[in-house]
Amino acid sequence: MKIEVQIYQHEWPKLFEKEANNICAILGKEIMAIHHIGSTSVPGLKAKPVIDILPVVKDVHVIDQYNEAMADLGYKSLGENGIKGRRFFKKGENPRTHHVHIFQKDAQHEIVRHLAVRDYLKAHVNTARDYGVLKESLAQKFPNDIEGYCDGKDAYVRQLERNALEWCIQNEEIDYIS
């Protein structure tokens, strides 16, 4: 699968809203909040055109009973997929269009980590620009190697997360439920 990094598309928030409504219709009262995360949630940031969605739910273990309904929307369930306490779904193969990262309300570290990075990039335009340039150069260097692409941005993302969490704490920026 070719790695494609695009300039920011104004349709991404609309695609999030549409899919969030579909997911909320399936998960119903299990959902406490639903967030657009990842690079497509940051205006002006270059990104792979994959919409990342973070629903916060009351009980993540109940989500497994919705796998068939999510499959009807085109999602494949991948269970925790490397992050304890998460339920991860992907939609589309080539191209991939959406990722859904479902966390239980008390998984604050994971929820806040995602929201802090999003909000930090929105507030720090130069950092977002630099991150976009890095992703674009890595996509050119590793056009068919997702592991190389991810490895190439790993150190940058780890530092970005540290900066974002520190900024978030200093500014009391995140209300992750609403």
TrEMBL record:
<keyword id="KW-0418">Kinase</keyword>
<dbReference type="InterPro" id="IPR007344">
    <property type="entry name" value="GrpB/CoaE"/>
</dbReference>
<dbReference type="GO" id="GO:0016301">
    <property type="term" value="F:kinase activity"/>
</dbReference>
<keyword id="KW-0808">Transferase</keyword>
<protein>
    <submittedName>
        <fullName>Dephospho-CoA kinase/protein folding accessory domain-containing protein</fullName>
    </submittedName>
</protein>
<dbReference type="InterPro" id="IPR043519">
    <property type="entry name" value="NT_sf"/>
</dbReference>
<dbReference type="Pfam" id="PF04229">
    <property type="entry name" value="GrpB"/>
</dbReference>
